[in-house]
Amino acid sequence: MNEPRETSSVELPAASGGELGDFAQALRRQAWVLVLVVALVAVAGTAMVLRRPASWTSTASLLVPEQSSGGARGDALVDLSTQRQVLRSETVGALARDRLADQDVGLEDADPGDLVARVAVEVPVDTRVLRLTASGEDAAQAEAVARAFVSSYRDLSHLDAVADRNGLIDLLEDDLDDADADLQSVNDELSAAGSGSAAELEARSRRSLVTDRISDLSERRAELLVTPIPTVRVLSAASDASTGDQDLPVRDLALVLLAGLVLGSIAAVVRDRFDDRVRDGEAVEVALGAPVLASVPAASPVTQLVVADDPTGAGADAYRQLRVGVLGSPEVPGGTILLAGVRGGEGTGGVAANLAMALAATGRTVALVAVDGEHPSAADHFDVEGPGLAEVLAHAVPPAEALQRPRWLPVSVLPRGGEGVSVGDMLQSEAMHLLHTALREEFDFVLLAAPPFLGAADAVALATLSDAAVVVASPRRTSLRDLRAVRAKLARVGFPVLGAVLNGSAVPAADDRPAGPGEDLIPEELPPAPPTDDGAEAPVHAGAPR
After folding, report:
1. Taking the CA of residue 87 as centre, how many other CA atoms within 13 Å lie in the half-sphere pointing to its CB?
2. pLDDT, position 241
3. For the residues 313-338, what does the mean pLDDT come to?
4. Architecture, CATH, for domain 281-506
């Protein structure tokens, strides 16, 4: 084992070149959030758009007279802002409802306020025009509302104008009555005054003024009686209703999709901001306080012995990188390496099996002990089963009988055995110590595929037997917080961490490892195994004669 160390170099993902790159990476990492939000918004928005009733509109234009009573002296100018409010008042709405009660347009019992809400009025600049737009659920309803408001407003305006004129006439008649009374009083004074006296002159002067006043009031009264009452003119009657809703679904659905993309992007970025899962090797190194020894591509099936089945692939190259890190580390003088995940499901068994194959390819002897209960376990990758570690520790089977070596692969495997039996309490027993001592004497490397560090105490219990640990992390499962917890847990017992493996492959539900031995790794001197009853090659126990 005293060979020149090989230096380890793991390429870490390069940092993003800017905020746009960070945003794109966040969307890529949280793509499922983006798709989910877009789908939900699209479904809800489409349902709302399709269920929304069509909106029809009809317009009409009214010319408001400049003065309130036809130009008579003393008339007041009409305020268009006030008239706009009158047209949309509940008084006009009540009159319009009475007109709509006789029309079969579905508004017979409508509230005046609801009718007013269907009407919009605008005043074009520098005009005396009120432009009314009425809306309805269909063409007939929109046109009926427009006609009803136009007629109601005109009638109300006419009644107000008549009332204003009659009020002025009443005031003038009151003034005429007062003037007639003054004239009668002046005539009485004139009759009582002596001829040529000062009283007579004063009375005649006063009678002249009263007479002029009576004449002016009479003229104004006559002018009001003959002047036409100002009316609101209809410049354009209620037009045929129209709708833009034929184009709305396409436009609105596009807006819904855009809203979904915006909301989905926001949700993805927010979730990514608070997502503590492993993203790159640099983050793993900071959290764990140890280097990343290798990064296994996600495309490599976790149940495949890529070192043997695809020796030229990226996965096999990643395990060779891991081997470089192990052989070049001063923390492994004795050759016992503990491999464990963080919380489970990181594919520790596959990493241990492939590392064993990579180490064996250099001519070193390797024993792989499956302590974890994960499926597929490290032993499953070699198609090894039967009594194993549990039976050895229980003194039910001797180590030489439980330790198996598949003839086509240069690795000795000790399966976990004892299906459903816990071996945790026996990992610190004398039997385990003796087993480990025997393995160390026979093999150059002993790999312990242990349960996850945070899932049970078994991994830490094996620390007393191991020289260093390799932590297996998965970008889809492992959080940086958990890696920091593993670091603290191992630091408390003074156990060194050799490094980490970023295993991009999660453990699948079933073993889909393709068949095919790695003939290029079979030692030439290893004889073929005797066939079993069904004709298949049988594994040979490590202690059996070859």
Report:
1. 31
2. 78
3. 83
4. 3-Layer(aba) Sandwich (3.40)
The tens digit of pLDDT for each residue in 41-96 reads 888 877 776 666 667 889 999 998 876 554 444 445 678 888 899 989 999 999 99
User: For the sheet containing 56-63, what is the strand order?
Assistant: 119-122, 129-136, 56-63, 233-236
Sequential DSSP letters for 451-511? PPTTT-SHHHHGGGG-SEEEEEE-TTT-BHHHHHHHHHHHHHTTPPEEEEEEE-PPPPSS-
What is the Cα–Cα distance from 179 to 166, expressed in whole angstroms? Answer: 20
Q: How far apart, in Å, are the Cα atoms of 498 and each of 78, 235, 502?
A: 92, 91, 14
Sequence-distant (6+) residues with CB within 8 A of 255 are 45
The confidence band for 522, taking pLDDT boundaries of 50, 70 and 90, is very low
Give pLDDT, residue 121: 92
Q: What local confidence, expressed as pLDDT, does residue 315 receive?
A: 86
- What is the secondary structure of 280-345 as a DSSP string? SHHHHHHHHSS-EEEEE-TTS-TTS-HHHH-TTSHHHHHHHHHHHHHHT-TT-SS-EEEEE-SSS-
To the nearest whole number, what is the mean pLDDT of the chain? 79
Q: What is the pairing mode between strands 336-340 and 445-449?
A: parallel
Element (DSSP H or E) covering residue 60:
strand 56-63
List the domain boundaries for the chain.
31-52+245-274, 56-236, 281-506
CATH architecture observed for domain 56-236: 2-Layer Sandwich (3.30)
Cβ atoms 359, 370 nearer than 8 A: no
DSSP class of residue 346?
S
The whole-angstrom separation of Cα 392 and Cα 431 is 8
